[in-house]
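Protocol step 6 of 9: fold each sequence in the batch and record its structure tokens directly after the sequence line. For illustration, a two-sequence batch is reproduced in full.

Sequence one:
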Amino acid sequence: MDRPNAWLNYQFEETEELESVAQQYRAFLDAGKTERECVAEIVRLAEAEGYRDLADILREGKVLTAGDKVYAVCMKKTIALFQIGKKSLTEGMNILCAHIDSPRLDIKQNPLFEENELAYLDTHYYGGVKKYQWVTLPLAIHGVVAKKDGSLIQVKIGEDENDPVVYITDLLIHLSSKQLQKKAAEVIEGEKLDILIGSRPLSKDNAQDDDEKKKNKKDSEKKIKDAVKKQILKLLQDKYGMEEEDFLSAELEIVPAGKARECGLDRSMIAAYGQDDRVCAFTSYLALAHTREAMEKTSCCLLVDKEEIGSVGATGMQSRFFENTVADLANACGMSAESALRHILSSCRMLSSDVSAGFDPSYAEAFEKNNAAYLGHGIVLNKYTGSRGKSGSNDANAEYVAVLRRIFDENKICFQTAELGKVDYGGGGTIAYIAALYGMEVIDSGVAVLSMHAPWEITSKADIYEAYKAYKAFLKEA
């Protein structure tokens, strides 16, 4: 069953809206390269649309009614937004759920070292990465440093055009005969992903105060031990008031430096870091924000952390955050949460808004063409993900797929169905199976991506726009 190319359906007015959505999306990617930054940006956007913190509503003892908009945040890394519908919560919600974490390199807790007068930061990669893709790129440092006094230092280095960038070196081709004989998974080892951050040693004048200079005139020519490392520490102290031990309570992430860009001579695509899964996260949020009238059912946009490492931890989908937040929401709607919660959750419908692998003609052998996702052909429905024998998947029921087909067709939304590559080639999972544990109907539904999990990924503007339209239609009619 051939699905049409979405670009062929657009009139001028729709193309203008498509470009507006793509422009807003690029701005979101530039503002949110970490999960903390994504949540902060979503809160900023949501409050401008009239959303209020659910904690404030509960504190004030207010009762939520149809049309009210609230949000809740967990540890600055996960956010749930709700627009209250006309029907009781016990009749369920329509939920768009995506993740905002992306593969990256995390700075270790004791990372700073000097080797042969070069200073490095030691890293531990996060999520599924091809390690060789991360070398010889301009990289940026994003994150926070928590001080013992309770203060939090925001760090962002490498994004402004006047900022320095950091870098991971590779062996020159002239000496790499042995390296090139290794398997791709081994050509760059995890412990070799050290970030080069400096080469200038600290001078004696900078290292000592006036009394020390007088005392050490005789041995002024002696070399300072780890002088490059000490220079880096001095720079960190001067700019951030940061000591070496502050790395112990820091969350610093290494990501590709640079802004999201239009891709292709026809400007039909977007090239950027972190599109898995921020492309679905942003379009999910935008769909909710642009659905301004009170709907029949309560609508929810849930953006979670830790999907790339199994949805674990307090900010992952396996935590109780969403469950607890829905209980608070029920209380704010004047309901007895204990008796209503399981009925609410089991009556929900969800789109697990996650990306799909786009068919790449350069690697056609990994795909089964009749069940592959194609760039420009609209939002992708994955009835099941998992690997090989559907291991780890949520296999959506046929009735739910039929409901979505009707909604998308009636709203003239381009959609396609796909699997994640050939059956025995591998596979991957999403958060869909976790949501299904509540008994709700859920299916994976997202945007096709080329070079998924690479430092720079490619998406089609048409697919981004179709996802936005599909999510709006789902919230209104599911």
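Sequence two, same batch, same settings:
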Amino acid sequence: MTDNLKMSSTSAEVKRNLCQKCQGWRKLCGHGICPILAKAQSIAEIQKTFTKTDFFGASPPGFFVGEYGYPRVSIGPLVPPVASEDTSIYDAEEQWIFKTMEEIIGYRSALVRGKKTISVKKAKEPGHRLLETTQELVMSSKPVDTEMSFIKRPKLELVFSPRVPPAGPSGVIKQARLTENPKVPQVVDKVVSDIDLKAINGIIKLYDDKINQRHITRLLSAGLFGVKKNRKLVPTTWSITAVDDILGKRYWKRIIHNPWINKVKIFHYKALGNLVVIFLYPSAWMFEAFEYWFFGSSDAMAVDWETWRGRKTYAKDVAGAYYCTRLEVLEYLDMIQRQAGCFLFMEVDKEWIPCGVWRFREIAKEALKQQPILADTLEDGFLELRKIIRYPLEKYLERSNTYKILRKQETLEQFFPKDVQG
């Protein structure tokens, strides 16, 4: 993974996510009662459940690697106090856009997180018992019954992040043990066992073999990809974006020589207070993502972009949402064997609670399943677009870099090189 993807929460993300700064008591959003705590009514009852230091439950499977203190990080499994049941929904982000915020917070707040601080380099060194146990766990495609014991009773601190879903109580773990054999797909076992296979090739191999992207992210985070001497633990927030970026670049290389689409196509979908609009137009590959929050600071828009040359630096304004939505658009274009320019709009209503970028990935994926609105010209497409988005299109275009490029050219063909026109 490239160093420019090793990012903690950016200032732009913090600026747009008052919940991350407020944590429920400073009332920065102006509400008299914190909407997070009001919606998470089950938290008090959950707190009563965790009155002991020993737990037994079926991990979804779940695993988390922190980024604080890197290269010494906190690692551990996520286990709800529910045994021998299908708990996969607790970590199944791809199913959540059809759930309520109360349900999602309920799933996550029920996950007990074990924590132990170790060096990221331990991934290539055998002998660390907790790490070996959790690495076995994350290889599984099904929930795994797991025992955990803690030094002290886990403490509930529900933290809301712009990049990852929250987790419930956490505590320093004494030991962990799997009480059943993990169900490991053969291709996962083969890739993990290949200590000469580069991480990028392993990620692409598993994705092509229909291994769930969330599963691939866990494996990367647990240090199970790559040449043996280079294997390291990867903080969960970094691994999410790294996988999106690796897969996105793979599709980008495949689509840049395809012929252009011949009409404007507009896809859109809304869930959980988040609207995603994908506006594709005839062009060589260009991508620009806009994220606008209808609460927070007075200037709550984030913008990042690229042309057919691709992107070399981290998209620090839109951050993780840029990479996960770009992947969905590129995968769609690869499927139809075309290339296009894309304006991607993400609008966030007040009802949303920061729980990670997964929702933009899944909403974009759902949008691309819908029947698109078609238009013959860019301006006709803009007329249709105005009916969908809430924030004024003119304000988006004022901040747009790719629109400025389009306006400067008499025709698109004069700007883009002949070898990418298809």
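Proceed to step 7 once all outputs are recorded. Observation for sequence two: Residues 26-234 form one domain.
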